[in-house]
Amino acid sequence: MGVQTLVLLPGLMCDAGVWEPLYSHLPAGATPWVADYGMANSLSAMAARVLQQAPADRFALAGHSMGGRVAMELLRQAPQRVTQVALLDTGYLPCATGEAGSQEAAKRQALLEVARTQGVRAMAQTWVQGMVHPDRLQDAALMEAVVAMFARKSTEVFAAQIEALLARPDASDVLRALTVPTLLQCGAQDSWSPPAQHAEMQVLAPRAVLDVISQAGHMAPMERPHAVAASLARWLADMAA
């Protein structure tokens, strides 16, 4: 492959720290660029900001968690700029109505309240417990890397991003419209965005490839960077071919 810009979209309270473990395992021609959403408080505003700041007119696009949802909004706004898309550990449905939706909002607001009263780091130490493969909870280096990444973001950013997620649109139509090489990927033990959810996405986008990363939870790119990068390398090669 020639030189190819790879636009990388982090998830909720995440930054380049999610993606950096992959860099040394990516194909030589892939040039990563990680987006920052600033204080954007809607997924569509995040996508518009990425389109404004992306360093190339056309690019490969990968999004992790909330970043996957931003990727789908970007495809809604400017599909002609995306050569291929990878959606990692993510989802496509809007916030549920009724009791389920109220429960999600309450859980997110409770985390925000901990961040406001005890600090982002204290919130992150609780939140991270469900984000990695259970066997990795004793991996001090990994856990610190995830917690430190969350702690680099402010409570104000957390509030804006929660607002965006609670108002997330249904992206089923974006998945159905996909014509570029598409990768759906998640950790086998991702309890936030489980493999079954990605299988549903593949039903909507039947040409997509589904890769499940063994021995990994929601933070698969940080937990199993070699396996995640190998999957991305295969996807990047699809375009070259």
From TrEMBL:
InterPro entries xrefs: AB_hydrolase_1 (IPR000073), AB_hydrolase_fold (IPR029058), AB_hydrolase_sf (IPR050266)
Name used for this protein in its record: Pimeloyl-ACP methyl ester carboxylesterase
AB hydrolase-1 domain segment(s): 6-230
Listed Pfam families: Abhydrolase_6
